[in-house]
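look at this:
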Amino acid sequence: MNKKVLVTVAALSLATSVGFASPLNDFSKGNVAVDVSVRPSNDLKVSDNGTFDGKNSWEYGVTAGLGNKLAVQYKNYNPLSKDYSDGDNVINGKLDTQEFNVLYKLDKNFTAFTGVNQVKSIYRVNGRDFTGDTKSNWQVGITGQTDLSDKLVGYATISAGEDTNAYKLGLGYAIDKNLDFDVFYGQNKYNKVKYNSDVALLAGSTDADYTVKGFGYGVTYKF
């Protein structure tokens, strides 16, 4: 199994923690938004070793208002790669990602946030799982949104940390007062994500940089 194949496997695991439906904009105590979205086979890139296809992957999130302009948020995304073969091995992978954020509403249109995103590479070679170390990154970011019509909202999010950065542009359409439909384009980057030690020895590397970008869509239920 050569280095390029191993690096490719890790690349196919990549995902973004950003990609959820239109943001909760009312942080009154007790207000909750549940997000479910999917990214079709977005482009995945690992360091300088190429760009690869992934499978459709689901994302989930919950945002809960605390009052006093504060909210807490959890996001989860575990994208899967397609199966690839180097002639001798059948390989697929995924990336486990989680986010834990605290949000503060600056005004009607802008929300700042900070928190931790965690990334872990997992992939399978001929049925055997290899799991890398969890990479944790502090991040800060801001989301802006504006009403484009009675039912249409435009929004943008940007975030950054020492080994991570992301942006997202989206449109949310209110199907009814509690349900929004969302389409978006986003890109996320995670740097210095470590391989499983066994794979690192074979590949001659202990970490890699990952990027994912492309379109997605989803729904947000607010109650």
Observations:
- DSSP finds two helices and 14 strands in the chain.
- The radius of gyration is 18 Å.
- The first strand starts at residue 32 and ends at 39.
